[in-house]
Amino acid sequence: MNEPRVVMITGAFGALGTAVARRFRADGARLALIAHARVPEWGTKEYPAPHRLIGGVDLADPAAARGAVQQILGSDGPLDVLVNIAGAFRWQKVEGSDIAIWETMFAMNLKTAVVTSQAAIPHLRSRGAGRIINIGAGAAARGHTGTGAYAASKAGVERFSEALADELKDENITVNTVLPGTIDTPANRTAMPQADTTRWVSPDAVADVIAFLASDAARAVTGAAIRVSGRG
Description:
Layout: E1 6-10, H1 15-26, E2 30-34, H2 41-46, E3 52-54, H3 62-73, E4 81-84, H4 99-125, E5 130-135, H5 148-167, E6 173-180, H6 186-191, H7 203-214, E7 225-228
Parallel strand pairs: 1-2, 1-4, 2-3, 4-5, 5-6, 6-7
């Protein structure tokens, strides 16, 4: 019998991370769930051993990320799939803005993906093949008022993914980006109470695309950026 795939997910306890974890669990994967947030009470109940969960990790810190990956996988444990979901959104205009917000967006949206990928690549190699799937944003295609820092950082995720895909193309490790539109989450509904949520994309729909990119059916897809926008 084949061993279950090992799937690591960052930002695993948010709305999208939860949907992605459940999707891979339904496929029989063994999960390694990492987040900056603490592990929620439901986490260990829903994901008992052999799944592994760790919270309170600053994934923008290389030492912290390496330590978390080693703790959750072991020093030379195998990994099949890395899904970088960790990130955040802040709205502010450029004029008079706090430059710290720009630094925060780049740290949370781009640096976390770079640092975690660096920590995970040796583990992906141990399987002789692997998948890295990064979460960008449809909004990164064009900046709008108040979204400059967010859009710039998410555009960086797409360029980073392309560069890493080229770097790893001869090692049977694919790297792709998913670009969701507005995701139908409780937080987005609270922030945009007047929006037409029927045009948003569900976390489960995004998770299905991620699962496809992680599958053998997508073995020839690398360096791609796939928009998942619902009817938005």
